[in-house]
Structures
1.
Amino acid sequence: MSNAFITKLCRYAPLGDNEIAALEKLSRNPRRWASGRDLIREGQRPEIVFMLLEGWAYRYKILKDGSRHILAYLVPGDVCDIHIFMLDEMDHSIGLLSDALVVEIPPKDLMAAMEKYPAIQRALWWATLVDEATLREWLVNIGQRDSFERIAHLFCEMWLRMQAIGLVNEDESFDLPLTQVEIGDTMGLTAVHVNRTLQRLRREELITLDNARLTILDPKRLAAVSGFRPNYLHRGTEPLEKRLRERLGAPV
Amino acid sequence: MSNAFITKLCRYAPLGDNEIAALEKLSRNPRRWASGRDLIREGQRPEIVFMLLEGWAYRYKILKDGSRHILAYLVPGDVCDIHIFMLDEMDHSIGLLSDALVVEIPPKDLMAAMEKYPAIQRALWWATLVDEATLREWLVNIGQRDSFERIAHLFCEMWLRMQAIGLVNEDESFDLPLTQVEIGDTMGLTAVHVNRTLQRLRREELITLDNARLTILDPKRLAAVSGFRPNYLHRGTEPLEKRLRERLGAPV
DNA sequence: CGCAAGTTTGACGCTGCTCAATCACTGTGG
DNA sequence: CCACAGTGATTGAGCAGCGTCAAACTTGCG
């Protein structure tokens, strides 16, 4: 028995049977949510921690003029910010891009698991650090790259993230439940310009995209044209335990 | 005896004498660094946690084509990511925008203080959450606003952050050690366009900026034209302790 | 069959970029 | 004390990437 949450955390820290059992217990009783619904809205108090088992979600803000900006995508295994319950109110909303299977974890259960199992704590910290690094890379992406590089970069990232949870086919295709409006709201572009840029990506035989299914035809070239370097995803090569022992002086 | 670090954390959690003493101990032995130097570079292993007592620093990335993007500013009291030592290597660099007074904290000392004093742990988590929320707001800023709103928004934010650590004069002026190139690299604009936009901000009598000193002439209007809402800075109104008790079920 | 949502296309204009020159200020050496 | 070099600010002219507006087309679905 496993799920995307466990698959993901196992990449960040070696988890034993006890830890895995604890994570399974946390992810019991998921509920189905319908596409388009919001898990939580800006201004509300964060009372629970959401965790995605299936489907896509997205963080977003709406500005006074009605424009929306998408801040992050959440895919299976992703957690909505483990410490967020500390805050007075949400500064952004989280909505669903597809039907989804969602676990609602009471903060105190999560905290308890983190205290009991240091490996879980470390894996969750790691996940948090990666989320933050991803935000930084998105900032660079919007700030410095043109529309072509921008969208290519996004596709490279989602390709690796989907790979990490085993959702990419052998033909390098995966589900991408995004409309062109949503891609635009993510990249700071209009849907019209996204459309034209996608056409160029197709014309240059880098991707295929129909029916919410994206195929990466030439991963190397797609990474090259977008300046994509996956270091910010910190997919960790060297054993985490060793590194921590070096830096903290003793086993934690 | 106090410093910007303590001032800042006190805003996030009520700290007793013991906690303050512990923070003072952590911030002993600061070193002077010269403007322009890097605290740490992309690709290096993060071995220590840096904390700024005086001066400005900035997180940045350099792309293959040589362009630079600035991801965040660090002002007195700010800490360079408390858990960063968990990562294999830095995904960005941190440089100094001015001469600075910097403390180098060994991760194990910081961890020890967090374990011994839950209030310190909470204050540091809070600070981390605010850093992340700020990144999200910057993403919205670059993604959705034009150059005029963008720069106005940045100035609003820095004004509040400098206020929080007592570095704003009664005339609403504070040091802003940024060149126009740096503002451009922050906002995804060229220095030429920043120059023209600053002229417009001056012409509309919103700000004054000479000699690296920024004066906010009309805070309300500056916030209005930029769509600035300070909620993402989570400056906390209601007592933190109460909120946590509600949500975790018992005093931590 | 017909609507709704999403995609595609075209024409046109503006924001912000490029290139290039000039200006202001400051620190340096003769 | 002045020439001058270096850094940052400012200005101008021309251009292009991307936005706007509007319409047509395509697909899924009740």
2.
Amino acid sequence: MSEVRWLDDREQLVWRGFLSMQSRLFSRLERQLQRETGLSGADYAVLVSLSDSPDGSLRPFELGAEVDWEKSRLSHHLRRMADRGLVKRHTCDTDGRGAVILITDAGREAIEKAAPYHVEEVRRWFIDLLTPEQLQTLAQISQTVIERLAAEDPGP
Amino acid sequence: MSEVRWLDDREQLVWRGFLSMQSRLFSRLERQLQRETGLSGADYAVLVSLSDSPDGSLRPFELGAEVDWEKSRLSHHLRRMADRGLVKRHTCDTDGRGAVILITDAGREAIEKAAPYHVEEVRRWFIDLLTPEQLQTLAQISQTVIERLAAEDPGP
DNA sequence: CAAACCCGCATGACACGTCAACCATTCCGC
DNA sequence: GCGGAATGGTTGACGTGTCATGCGGGTTTG
């Protein structure tokens, strides 16, 4: 076993700062979204995906691919959203195992009310604070990290 | 009410990429840390703060300031960590309301075993993938966002 | 066409985080 | 000093996320 390569001061600063920024930013956005619209970030992501779909419906595994959640998380969350009347489940005609998730009118109304508000918040606390160069760099960073994670993600 | 300033394509790309990177990265780190060391990221943060302290003990409100958690979250989490034998609670001599949290030998052992492993993972999936310029920019971004959040944080 | 395997999804148990309410102590103004 | 506010911390209820497991419908292979 080789020697541990601890983070040097500069790296620590970056990593801790990033951790702190990330946790504060998302807890802020999450809390405000919840308070003002009654939707969680998770609800929001699901409803965006569904309403982007032509007929407002998706198979759970398609939805899962878009939001990148574990299937059990998705299953639990969809049940709760169905209980709240934001989505509806149907059985799938073409696949006896599967289900189809359909956005309801209430779901559409919720996301259409929430979206403008949420975009404002994202601008206010993040996007509008950064220069085009910073945004560009952040996009590169994100892509690099995502590719690395995807590359060496052989699953369990 | 003014017109909504939706995100343009470039901004969408940045924001969605950042969201995706952030969620994938932390879920990866969290899961691996948990599997390999039995500690959650929350455990890790608490134990780092405690073991950084000269006498291995802190008041909960000091700990709360370091990890930036709500007090109820901290209270719940410290109870669970105490149940697992990672920390110990004492009553505070100098303040009848307060408590003192002390890291146990088991807690020290846990964090000392986890730290090298976790640092390797942070390097592997993040730090080592980025150029010094990218790290520099990310630090700037983090600081900008944190300052903005702190500035206009009127509390409840 | 049957056995074996895989896929899509649900479920139960449990850890976690938030909210709202609460209790006890200490601090502060008068 | 005393009444009230502020501080330090806990608790219970509830929504959420993960892990392990299960289950029935599909698909493939002999």
3.
Amino acid sequence: MLDMRLKKLARQEVSCRDCALHRICLPAQLPASEVHILEHAVERNRVLAAGASLTHAGRRVQALYVLRNGSAKCSWISADGEESVRGFYLPGELIGLESLAERRHACDVLALEPTNYCRIPIARFEMLLDMLPGLRREVVRSLSLSLEASSRLVTRLVSTSARTRLAGFLLDLSRRLERRGLVSQEFELSMSRRDIARHLGLTVETVSRGLTAFKRAGWLLVRGRQIGIRDPGALSALSN
Amino acid sequence: MLDMRLKKLARQEVSCRDCALHRICLPAQLPASEVHILEHAVERNRVLAAGASLTHAGRRVQALYVLRNGSAKCSWISADGEESVRGFYLPGELIGLESLAERRHACDVLALEPTNYCRIPIARFEMLLDMLPGLRREVVRSLSLSLEASSRLVTRLVSTSARTRLAGFLLDLSRRLERRGLVSQEFELSMSRRDIARHLGLTVETVSRGLTAFKRAGWLLVRGRQIGIRDPGALSALSN
DNA sequence: CGGAAGATTGAAAATCATCAATACTCGTGG
DNA sequence: CCACGAGTATTGATGATTTTCAATCTTCCG
């Protein structure tokens, strides 16, 4: 018994159920029996230094990933050398699903801060997919949700005004943090202004000016990367 | 034998294999045995007048759809009454997958021209999903591809210049038509300039000016909604 | 033919990008 | 501990692009 405990401590966790993310992560809706099988396929406690990358665009997909803490950006360098940032990953969000069909990663995923993550080798995952009906449903669900999130992002990007896009971005981030049980009104941006700009199709300067405008309006507290949302209603009214 | 033929004619087709889209549609990569089962669940030969809608945002998902000809737009009316166009569906593209998780449609889908389509009731589809491993793989693949397409759209929208977005839109449309074995250099836009504008986050006027600019540059033939691509290379260079 | 919706074009105003200068932050080494 | 420097962020001035407003033209359908 004690032996078990020590082993558990040494490897931090053995089970997905002990994980802080068990309410959000892939196993959340899975029957216990399937979780038990799935977690044997998961390589836990992997670490990534800030700036290190998880995937490279064009490389073969070897595994799926889930961050346990920290955050990552998903970006792509186009032919002319410009970087476009497709999005940011928060803990519990499954990484790599969109590359399942093509078998090659569509973008670089790069840690924005020191990060722990889980890794699931793709071959074992696909095997399990054929075995576990619950996992299957969860994957379809997860893909479906990603697609919806992507659609929302499109809606946000289509809004012509820079302020609107910025407000939408901040609110989306806030909502995703809230879902993770984190403080959603006060948080620290892990990404640079440049990353936000590249993500929203704006320039660094416009992002910066937008933030100070929100600050002056009393809607936001901004100190460097520390953000406090003071008037979500006003931001929401803008973003719609 | 003759009886069978007549019946077939009367209902146009009974099998997915007889369909003109069999190379692109969902059953394309499916083993024959599974196609056989799937096609019993498909309601064929349904029609939709131009302007009629297939789904309404917020309504429960009853079925998935695939257009057989014609085209549709996927749009969403935001709180302030503004319409944002998430995208356009061409024949063979599965409609409704992104709403699978939420069980409610995320947007309105509306026919842009007189359209025939297939309908698959969602309950039967989900039952088949548990029975047919090939179908499962195809659905995951299809979702994964949609997600990738959505990512590409994001990349396009993030490009700051209006011309760039417009060029990317036209090339994407051309590629999708080509994949369907249709003429990809000469085609008719089924959507209005307003729809294109709402889709790209621009105004009608900017879209119009962009098209005439491309025309003057000799890259495009434009006569109303009739488009001829003369210099795909130039457009492609712009869109990257 | 006439009317309505869609599309184009022009001129003005607003927004955003670009260029440039300055300030802040953080980690490193003196 | 302070200074330095690189990377990051803010701010200002200018110019380009895009929106907005308005007028005209085209197309399509009853």
4.
Amino acid sequence: MDTRNTSCTAAAPTQPSSYADLLRDLVRLLGGPEGGVDPAARTPPLFRRLTEDAVLAHEGAPLRSLYVVRSGSLKCVRTLGDGYEQVTALALPGDVLGFDGLHRGHHATTDVALEHATVYALPLSTLHDLRRRYPALDRAWHEALSRQLASASATADMLAAVTAEVRLARFVLWLSARSRELGWSPRRLRLSLCRRDLASLLGMAHETLSRSFSTLAQAGLLTVDNRELELLDVDEIQVRARTTRRPE
Amino acid sequence: MDTRNTSCTAAAPTQPSSYADLLRDLVRLLGGPEGGVDPAARTPPLFRRLTEDAVLAHEGAPLRSLYVVRSGSLKCVRTLGDGYEQVTALALPGDVLGFDGLHRGHHATTDVALEHATVYALPLSTLHDLRRRYPALDRAWHEALSRQLASASATADMLAAVTAEVRLARFVLWLSARSRELGWSPRRLRLSLCRRDLASLLGMAHETLSRSFSTLAQAGLLTVDNRELELLDVDEIQVRARTTRRPE
DNA sequence: CGTGATCTTGAAGGGGGTCAACTGGAGTGG
DNA sequence: CCACTCCAGTTGACCCCCTTCAAGATCACG
């Protein structure tokens, strides 16, 4: 299925106005310092706008570009043999998509927008060029990859927890930390994943996820209103997230 | 705690004889093409030799160098609040260690040698210098990071499986694939992790791991002799590894 | 041959996967 | 405006897998 016509527009109101702005924005997203980008560069990364459920990349498709999330969020999905959809990651602004497929030359996951989202598409040749031309961008890119690896480790950390409640507590804290880093509230969180997808990410049945939310809510640690979360007792959530064994 | 005196020696019989050899060896390990390295480079990566149980890096210690495993294997461990040791990765030759701590400036895990091992230590400044000087090394490094991210995803994949038996089947297949990539036998495998550590990596009790091994062995899919594995029916192991639901 | 660590096997109990039913909100068409 | 449908989310019931505790088996080493 071709996604170019369904989700990519050439111009948008929120798009950076000049190419220099665009590169600066990219470096900012990757966590680098302001400035240090030559406005006369010639190989622009593409700005792309995605609608909800738009597919940015297909699992197995040849990898030609890497992506940096600019706004909105996406889920990374791997379809297993029997049709089960395993969610492997939740991508937020600043996240790099597609990089884990670079060494094999094709996308490792299908990446789907969970809401209106914008991304920068970096063709591999452009990326190579930009990295050589702008040390600041290269350094920011390097650090962004480091965050990406740490993020994958964080996912593994959640999955490694013994009980479903602990896995959920770890996810909530992870999302809260990401939310803070993005300059949003670390207490009021909006889930862009539906229960089924979040349950898949956390390696449990969606019914179990529902029950775990209820348990944490009844303990007064947070409130749940559909996809709106409010953390009430972060300290106690941290205590539960640290649990490595079954409660006595 | 400083580990240099306990585990690093200046020279060893298997150490590359010249600096050009050393750089070529590094690019080879990272999966890059042969050649393309200037033998007159001035900032050498350090060759380090580790004895069993030697600690290469401590969780939380300031990150000054990244490491590339040259021979042997290491485990990456994170110590949780109550003293439980969570194994987060098994590092084999070609693997990059420490990179997930780059963006925070300190090591995310404690890295412990599981046997005699050798690594290249790349001080951050040296790495930066080498990458700018040698495009071949930069490209190899970039791809190695991609493999590293894919490896972290593979760990998450194992942990995401529903049952212990499926998690073990996925690990065995992962190890077999890595073994093939390293030019070793994909059927005869030697576990460098003890049961307890492997169980931690796979998110289960070590007793459950033991039972899962027994189950697969009694089904005739593999043989287990302490840490020696032989895969007898890879196809059927793959079938079990793909299972996403509980058997009827 | 003793001593401790590693690995395996047994038994019991609970957490969570599975199936099923119910609730509520969004979209549709009459 | 109101049935009707569909999907997301929640809750209940059943039962199996896995954790835990315990003991035995095997191996490494002094």
